[in-house]
Amino acid sequence: MSSHNPLFPITMKADWQDAVNFTVDEHLLDWLLDPCSLTARFKKHCQQFRIEVLGQQIQACSSEEANDDIQVGEQVLVREVLLYCDDKPQVFARSLLPLRSLTGEEQKLAHLGNQSLGQVLFNNPELIRKNIEISSFHGQGSLAKLLEGLSLNSKNEMWGRRSVFVLHDKPLMVAEIFLPDSFAYQLESAEL
């Protein structure tokens, strides 16, 4: 794997909850709760879609990120990426892939390079997506430094989502923060 971004791991501290616990703009909520591939949706909005890998390494799952499917202290492959549309950063994503899930056919998920994890997952008809949780974010800590490096305004509240996916009884978790200039916040980008 190529060198890591100096900010990696950026992480994301959040209070993940069911969407019913928040009052969120309907357009934004449509993006947050979209059960389909975010990669596919972004590709409809731009000429060029790309992934930039910020870093990937094995870590122990923290208590903040643990859930019913991934235990505290469990060894996970952490992958952090940026999703771009026409060279504009749209999303920061952090994925946790338990090492026990990276067996058999799923071994390829550890070697995606600049390929979209979402695209690979959603191409598998056996994919199960569990409940989508959402949270608000403020540009603080390493997230603020990332935004600064991308020349994005870190003053506005951002929103993110996370969910656990299951492939052949193997869980993995994906969390995504819509960055300040994302289509998710722009009403004019709504699909016709």
Describe this structure in words.
The chain is of the alpha+beta class. The protein has a single domain (17-187), classed as Chorismate lyase-like (Chorismate lyase), CATH 3.40.1410.10. Strands 1, 2, 3, 4, 5, 6, 7 and 8 form an 8-stranded antiparallel β-sheet that branches. Helix content is 15%, strand content 32%. The protein is built from 4 helices and 8 strands.
Strands, total number:
8
Question: How many DSSP helices?
Answer: 4
Span between termini: 40 Å
CATH architecture: 3-Layer(aba) Sandwich
Oligomer kind: single chain
Low-confidence stretches: none
Percent range of helical residues = 10-25%
CATH class: Alpha Beta
CATH fold topology: Chorismate lyase
Order of helices and strands: EHHEEEHEEHEE
The major pleated sheet works out as: 8 strands, antiparallel
Strand content: 25-35%
Shape: globular
Classify the secondary structure makeup into a structural class.
Answer: alpha+beta
- The fourth-level CATH homologous superfamily is Chorismate lyase-like
The averaged pLDDT comes out at 90
